[in-house]
Amino acid sequence: MYGLLLEEDKDQDYENALVEIESFELPIETTLRSVYDDQPNAHQKFMEKLDACIRNHDKEIEKMCNFHHQGFVDAITELLKVRTDAEKLKVQVTDTNCKLQDAGKEVIAQTEDIIRCRIQQRNITTVVEKLQCCLPVLEMYSKLKEQMNAKRYYSALKTMEQLENIYFPRVSQYRFCQIMIENLPKLREDIKEISMSDLKDFLESIRKHSNKIGETAMKQAQQQKIFNVILQKQNNINMGRNMCITNGKILQERNEVTSTYAFEEEDENEEEVLTVQDLVDFSPVYRCLHIYSVLGDEETFENYYRKQRKKQARLVLQPQPNMHETVDGYRRYFSQIVGFFVVEDHILHVTQGLVTRAYTDELWNMALSKIIAVLRAHSSYCTDPDLVLELINLIVVFADTLQGYGFPVNRLFDLLFEIRDQYNETLLKKWAGVFREIFEEDNCSPIPVANEEEYKIIISKFPFQDPDLEKHSFPKKFPMSQSVPHIYIQVKEFIYASLKFSESLHRSSTEIDDMLRKSTNLLLTRTLSSCLQNLIKKPHIGLTELVQIIINTTHLEQACKYLEDFITNITNISQETVHTTRLYGLSTFKDARHSAEGEIYTKLNQKIDEFVQLADYDWTMSEPDGRASGYLMDLINFLRSTFQVFTHLPNNNNDHAAMSGKVAQTACMSACQHLSTSLMQMLLDSELKQISMGAVQQFNLDVIQCELFASSEPVPGFQGDTLQLAFIDLRQLLDLFMVWDWSTYLADYGQPASKYLRVNPNTALTLLEK
């Protein structure tokens, strides 16, 4: 039973497969695969079902054909009947067509002529219309060519805009229009290249003319400054002039007349004022800017212009290697820089956006840093103060010029203060050489004058006042040497040189006064002081010259107050002002005097040593010669004549007299103490092994001469036997050996009232052994 059901299911599957094949709804591969899958003898059974199906369909076809066969035969019979009528109708239609064709040939020909004429007429109308559209385009393009040939590039660009926006859209379908459209970018590039070439020529031109532009601008700024100064003076005169009434008439001051004459002369000599437009043609810049603006490429033009100008700025700021040798080198350098920034300032104000204030400020700050570095480097090579002063004046004019164009120049004026120190150093070096020459030419002797005229010449050079000297008859001598008035004159010249610098800095009178005093103090305390110290230390300077130097420094010290008055008269700043700097001449010349005094003491001691070295004692002699040694007598005579020189020290007032007496006393005391020490060292010399009593007695004679010299008061002012105490150590030691009073020495040793209090036991023992 189960096998029958399974067979029926399988037959049903075959029936479904045949239905699917006939319907073509599923792919045949799928249907066949479902039939053959896992079924033995499936192929044979399926083929049997398929043949049975085919036979059924053949039977159905045959039935249908048999059913419609009679109808088909009837239709064929009908067609055969109408065949003859159709052929007759065809012949009639053909004849009728031939007749119609022959009758319409003339009409057709006329109609074709009419059509042809109408087409020609329409074409002509169309051509006229198109030409009317094209003619303005062609005229504008021709105008464009003419503008290009005439180098009217800005107008040509405007024409191009009209062609592109108005005319070309009307005729864009034509080939010639496409050619024109394709040609416009090339024309624009040509215009850009030509305008850029003109700009390059312009940049090269202004690079060459920067020097001239700068010179003109600096000259105008300087003239304006002079004019302002004259105008200010004129206003001051008009406001505060002094009137004097003589015979009922009011007379103007002479300086007012002079100022009025200056104004008239200024008006007569006024030259035509040149501007930067007169020196440079800026049209290439304007033209190029407009062209690039029209082309919409203004940013490219601005960047190119700024880039090229920055390159030119770097070239302008690059100094020449030997610029510091002449003022012309600095003048050319400044003129080029001024010319560069004058052009940029003009471009800033006449164009919109090509350069901006921020750009010029950035460029100026970069340039200012470079300028300051260059000036610092090159000015350091300047050793000529005149060249430094001219450089300073150029910097001031340079700063004033650029300040007039709105550029900040405070850093330049700060630089001037740095150069001021360098200028002062240069002046100090120059005046150091001047002072050395003065000292080398000075004979270190008082200035002789033979008559009143020579006397007045010296008085006119140096503020010397001495009523006693005025009473003396000619010939007479000034106490100072020739170097004093020369130094005084040179100090005033130094003040003038410093003033030339200070006046250029736009500073107040108080600041100028302070600068002059500080510079003068440097000259006195450093330069002049150093020259004096070097002079004092020179080997060939003797005692007489040292005494004269002391006299000279005293008078120079007294002249310092006149130098202060001189500065006050220049600056009109009273010395009573709280912040007024005082001159340090007092301490400078005091130090020089102390050095000279010390050198006097040193040279005296050296001279004493030279005489002592001439001593030739016979330390074994049995009897003394009965007189002092020759070398010692020569030494004493030398000291007497030397101390007489000190009478020439200035004593025109009590202070000077006290000072001269102190110097002389100190020198005399120092000489006696040194002589005593030298004689003592001679006795205690380790190479001296034996001394006879005769030699001691001879040595005693020499010490007696020394004591006589001390008691003769070679220099007045010593109290009692103060000077003799310089030889007390020698005297007590020699007395001990001459009297041979050893018992007293030993008994009183260490007692304040001892007769031999100054005798050192070791010294006495050493001499006793000898």
Automatic annotation (TrEMBL):
Which domain of life does this protein belong to? Eukaryota
The alphabetized UniProt keywords are:
Exocytosis, Transport
Give a yes or no for keyword Transport in this entry: yes
All copies of domain Exocyst complex component EXOC6/Sec15 N-terminal, residue ranges: 49-218
GO BP term (any one): vesicle tethering involved in exocytosis
Instruction: List cellular component terms (GO).
Output: exocyst; plasma membrane
Domain annotation Exocyst complex subunit EXOC6/Sec15 C-terminal: ranges: 412-770
Against Pfam families, the record matches this protein to: EXOC6_Sec15_N, Sec15_C
Q: Does the keyword Nucleotide-binding apply?
A: no
**Known role:** Component of the exocyst complex involved in the docking of exocytic vesicles with fusion sites on the plasma membrane.
Q: Which family does it belong to?
A: Belongs to the SEC15 family.
The protein's name: Exocyst complex component
Species per Swiss-Prot/TrEMBL record: Monodelphis domestica
